[in-house]
Design a protein that fits this description.
By secondary structure, this protein is α+β, with helices and mostly antiparallel strands. Strands 1, 2, 3, 4, 8, 9, 10, 15 and 16 form a 9-stranded mixed β-sheet that branches. α1 runs antiparallel to α2 and α8 crosses α9. The two termini are 31 Å apart.
Length: 317
């Protein structure tokens, strides 16, 4: 059977005007490396779940992405990360939120799914579980990134938060910034057995307070997979994606209204979210290997590769 891998590295005001040649080359290489990692698993007959984890780990290890090593800084100057993983074959899921010093949060999400008896762990409890499972840890200096740190220094004494680059204050008023993007990474895959999976990982918002959690680790909001419909990973303004239950809504439109994968994705992203004022996008795949990109922002870092030889990496509209 055929197989397909689709990835994203965030969405937002990603245009040629804010990207120089060096940055384009970095993102091109980063996305290509993630595709290669996940595709290798699928090409060897591996499971979609393992391909998703492999692709996301590659992006978590790359500091250009706001996940894992590239996670942004909180109000307290810390790196707190969220991740989720779902197996569409059996509707199993695992997620973590607010974890620190975990080299690859997506691996911890997998351990939660497989070995905890739970779905969602957070904070110190998730860290305790990580230690019990032998999950690889990393010191604070591993996560230090000068550009991320400088972003935080600019707003640490304010009530502003930044979705990677875009600022919003506590009243929801937008801070002008032409370089904003929603920094999250994700992958969805269909393996040769027709099983699909989805995963998402993020470093959250710069200068976030109160233990804020977005949509990425929430099953049905930022991440969802069901063999009967689709696997979805989202990237965008988490509060709006949470309220819209974006990932599950795509599945529901396919299951209950009979929409195609692309139609369902576009209905949620380009209609429902737009009406709510939500910006961002998603990637999706179904059990036949069909795939979809959908975003209402200027661009989305994205890529796909399948067994038919189709391949693409793109940033802009």
């Amino acid at each position: 059977m055929s197989f397909t891998l689709v990835i994203h590295g965030g969405a937002g005001n990603i245009t040629p005007a804010i990207m120089n040649a060096e940055q384009e080359a970095q993102y091109q290489a980063g996305l290509e490396a993630a595709l290669a990692s996940g595709y290798d698993v699928l090409n060897r007959g591996g499971a979609s779940l393992d391909a998703v984890v492999a692709a996301i780990c590659t992006m978590e290890d790359n500091p250009i992405f706001n996940a894992g090593r590239g996670a942004v800084f909180t109000k307290k100057g810390l790196n707190e990360m969220d991740a989720a993983l779902m197996d569409g074959r059996v509707l199993a899921a695992g997620a973590v939120a607010g974890v620190r010093n975990i080299r690859n949060p997506i691996k911890l999400a997998r351990e939660v799914m497989l070995h905890s008896g739970h779905v969602f762990l957070s904070g110190s409890g998730a860290a305790e579980f990580a230690l019990s499972q032998g999950i690889e840890m990393a010191p604070d200096k591993y996560f230090f990134n000068q550009s991320r740190y400088d972003q935080w220094l600019e707003i640490r004494d304010t009530n502003y938060t930044q979705l990677d680059h875009k600022g919003d204050n506590l009243k929801g008023e937008t801070v002008p910034d032409t370089g904003h993007k929603f920094g999250t990474v994700g992958a969805v895959a269909c393996d040769q057995y027709g099983n699909i999976s989805a995963g998402t990982s993020t470093g959250g918002m710069t200068n976030k307070r109160f233990g804020r959690i977005g949509d990425s680790p929430v099953i049905g909001a930022g991440t969802y997979a069901n063999n009967h419909t689709c696997a979805v990973s989202c990237t965008g303004h988490g509060e709006l994606f949470l309220r819209a239950c974006v990932a599950h809504d795509v599945s529901c439109l396919m299951e209950y209204r009979g929409l195609s994968l692309q139609e369902a994705c576009d209905k949620v992203v380009k209609d429902k979210l737009v009406k709510m004022g939500g910006e961002g996008g998603l990637i999706a795949v179904d059990a036949k290997g069909n795939f979809a990109f959908s975003f209402n922002s200027a661009g989305m870092y994205r890529g796909m590769l399948n067994s038919a030889g189709d391949r693409s990496v793109a940033f802009y509209t």
